[in-house]
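Box 3.1. Reading complex inputs
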Amino acid sequence: MEFDDVYFMRQAIREAVKAYEADEVPVGAVVVSNNQIIARGHNLTEQLHDVTAHAEMQAITAASHYLGAKYLPHCTLYVTLEPCSMCAGALFWTQMGRIVYGASDEKRGFTTMGGQFHPKTQVTIGVEAEVCADLMTEFFRSKRKK
Amino acid sequence: MEFDDVYFMRQAIREAVKAYEADEVPVGAVVVSNNQIIARGHNLTEQLHDVTAHAEMQAITAASHYLGAKYLPHCTLYVTLEPCSMCAGALFWTQMGRIVYGASDEKRGFTTMGGQFHPKTQVTIGVEAEVCADLMTEFFRSKRKK
């Protein structure tokens, strides 16, 4: 098993599936440091009645708690969906070393709604994008059927 | 005692002073519903080693918890400083009814860094702005002296 971007994105997808199964918009994230997952998160906004409970926010808080540090320049965040303005803003503050996201979010992603990552952050887009996007499409299709 | 914008902003300033006394960047917030403060928050990023622990984020989470609702269209958030992109993004998701902020933040505020409030949100700027800004100035001046 190679610990590459596809491997870690699939771990983020596992988190997204947990959200899906809990009837939450299926977004998942993991934070990696030295090839090791130090934090996981999935969307919990419905369960917690809290808009701030996005996957990235929980993964950031968990990673910071694990490291005892609020800056994460040596970490990589993998997330299944393009971050929103809130999450992009949080990632800016962390000075996250690298951000890898799967599917783009043309409606609510930060590239549409505004915001930016830290200028030092490396960014990779589109890893396992189809799987990430399909999860979202399937979730909203099943919602409409109800 | 009149429950007006100045009254509630002064309550947010009391929160900011708590942050100041804890050696945190002095920003404070309160959420008001039906003329009643239902949530308070002040910046805790240093204490919690967590960039997401801004005053507004904590006040949003507390208000949502109090009301058992993730949307807050009938609430007003008072905050001493212009929200950053992260907090503006969170406020967007809450559909906050009204946002009142004191001092502008030309460097890190969302009007500079990107992001937006919800289109239905009413916005009032500059209430007790001088007190709010002075707290920030004094904080950074004392930091430089150390």
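In summary: Chain A is about 45% helix and 20% strand.
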